[in-house]
Amino acid sequence: MPERDGYIPGVPCWVDASEPDPDSALDFYGGLFGWEFEDVMRPSSEGKYFIARHEAASSSIFDVSGALRNGDVAGIRPIPEAAPPMAMWNTYFWVDSADEAASNVRDAGGGIMVEPFDFMDACRMGVFTDREGAAFGVWEAKEHKGARLVNDPGALVFNGLNTRDVDGAKSFYGSVFGWQTGSIGGGAEGWTLPGYGNWLEREHHPDLRKQMAAAGAPAGFEDIVGAIIPIPADQANTPAHWSVTFATDDADATAAKATELGGKVIVPPFDAPWSTATYTIRITVISDTQGATFGASKFVAKGQAPK
After folding, report:
1. Can you list the alpha helix ranges (DSSP code H) found in 236-288?
2. Residues 197-225 pLDDT 10s
3. Which end of the chain is more exposed for a tag (fewer CB within 10 A), N or C?
4. Residue 212's domain is classified under what CATH number?
């Protein structure tokens, strides 16, 4: 799948980490994923915004060409004044109009954390909350077209809504982005955007449906834009939130490397229940050195040892 140069409305298109000490985060993520960074803020600016870039060989189950690809994968920034004083990964969705999205969020019963504003020449963005308080951003692209590299090792592969109110979330995000729901395997549900698979096949991957079927993906999987993750009843202190997962060559090795770099393994590597008929998703959940959590996952062919 070639490097991305834009998305369609309602698709996750960018992630960044809000960190108390952004400079320290560079060492961790550079060591973990091999990311290289550039501060894109103007010299006169008091703040910093680091763009992470990466080069990786394709190893997606839907593209095993091994072709080298590179591009922007994520951002690292200080914690904004209006945000909670904690390190976290943030998810942004592509929209045609950030201002219209803000209006849709209000109408659907959500909240506005940061009113839409122009972020240099990159985009017009805003930060909102759903009815449960899960924060997310929108990205009205200008010069920056979101993540250029996705699904390959060291790049974004999935976003998930962790929620206690699945029905309420379906109503909210259906109103804001036009999402529906569908199977992601193993009895789990994901967010679908009608027409997304058509766009992917047309613009990026002509054989997508054929390869998904060969991999045992559920019907309609090509329209999936995110996961629905019910928060267990015994996690009373876990707020609703959007989570971020990066692809990796080896989930077990990534967990070990994160520990070596000073992070913590929150959930040791395990085989996810929403695996396909022919592939297992091996995933781990990690906290970086400042407390921002994220997943790292690898598709493993069934019958093969994880690596």
Report:
1. 251-260
2. 999 999 888 888 888 888 778 888 899 99
3. C
4. 3.10.180.10
